[in-house]
Automatic annotation (TrEMBL):
GO cellular component: plasma membrane
Places the protein is found: Membrane
Family: Belongs to the band 7/mec-2 family.
Protein name: Band 7 domain-containing protein
Residue intervals of the Band domain: 62-221
Annotated source species: Pieris brassicae (White butterfly)
Keywords, comma-separated and alphabetical: Membrane
Gene3D superfamilies: 6.10.250.2090, Band 7 domain (3.30.479.30)
Short name of one Pfam family: Band_7
Cross-referenced InterPro entries: Band-7_stomatin-like (IPR043202), Band_7 (IPR001107), Band_7/SPFH_dom_sf (IPR036013), Stomatin_HflK_fam (IPR001972)
SMART domains reported for this sequence: PHB
Signal peptide: none
């Protein structure tokens, strides 16, 4: 840095005379590259390579590492991230004492969100739990940008569950679980995207209501069913009365239809194996045994004047 300042001063002396008159002049100061390896780092790298050569071939067991198909390795050399991104799958090389690496699993991971006591928009307290499926899509961000991506995703899922359910009514919470799951997935995926985490799926497992609220909802549902049953029974009686009216009109026009209906009723009663049968006997059967004047109307004598 001092050498650069001296070179800057020497360049300033070589400037034209108009810079000495008070006019503004621009100076470019070249700062050292922070990514460039220093002398200590180069010396440590040289010593590590020397150690590998001295302990050859036993050092190969520590220098060569293997990651599986579903894993990636993020390598740091003296605290700095190595160029080339994550390594794997397969074999990669590390230097002892100066290189450290961390494996990241790319498979889908699932975890249960603990039951959360949520106050819905209509002031009802419910306990809701869910399950979240996520995977790592960018291993470098998952290692560098967040300390523990798994714990952070779990805490964020619990908080998001409370926030999303707090904006819904109890009826919406019970009947529209799929929309709530999609909304929670979108919020989680947007929040965890800088961490290299992709939330694939969110499912609401169970919604537990207080016992008193369950009893009240059961009583309400039972009353609703009873009301609908009474309405259905009343409508059935109206239809039956209309059908009986139409049948009576048919029987008035044809008396034999009434006789056939009596016989049908008698057959139905006898099929039940009853010991006593009470059956109304039609009076039309007795007309043939009655006197000819019995069926006619009785003539009254005129009243005395």
């Amino acid at each position: 840095m001092r050498a650069e300042v001296r070179s800057m001063n020497s360049r300033r002396d070589d400037l034209p005379s108009h810079c000495d008159t008070g006019t503004s002049c621009a100076f470019t100061i070249q700062m050292p590259n922070p990514e460039a390896a220093g002398c200590v780092e180069r010396f440590a790298t040289f010593m590590s390579l020397l150690l590998v050569i001295i302990t050859f071939p036993f050092s190969l067991f520590e220098c060569f590492k293997v990651v599986q198909e579903f894993e990636r390795a993020v390598i740091f050399r003296l605290g700095r991230l190595r160029k080339g991104g994550a390594r794997g799958p397969g074999l990669f090389f590390v230097l002892p004492c100066i290189d450290t690496y961390r494996k990241v699993d790319l498979r889908t991971v699932s975890f249960d969100v603990p039951p959360q006591e949520v106050l819905t928009r209509d002031s009802v307290t419910v306990a809701v739990d869910a399950v979240v499926y996520y995977r790592i899509k960018e291993p470098l961000n998952a290692v560098v940008r967040v300390a523990d991506y798994s714990a952070s995703t779990r805490l964020l899922a619990a908080t998001t569950l409370r926030n999303v359910l707090g904006m819904r009514d109890l009826a919406q919470l019970l009947s529209d679980r799929e929309a709530i799951s999609h909304m929670m997935q979108a919020n989680l995926d947007e929040a965890t995207d800088p961490w290299g985490v992709e939330v694939e799926r969110v499912e609401i497992k169970d919604v537990r209501l207080p016992v008193q609220l369950q009893r009240a909802m059961a009583a309400e549902a039972e009353a609703d069913r009873e009301a609908r049953a009474k309405i259905i029974a009343a409508e059935g009686e109206i239809k039956a009365s209309r059908a009986l009216k139409e049948a009576s009109l048919v029987m008035v026009d044809n008396p034999m239809a009434l006789q056939l209906r009596y016989l049908q009723s008698l057959n139905t009663i006898s099929a039940e194996k009853n010991s006593t049968i009470i059956f109304p006997f039609p009076m039309d059967f007795l007309r043939s045994f009655m006197s000819p004047g019995a069926g006619t109307s009785i003539t009254h004598s005129p009243l005395p004047v």
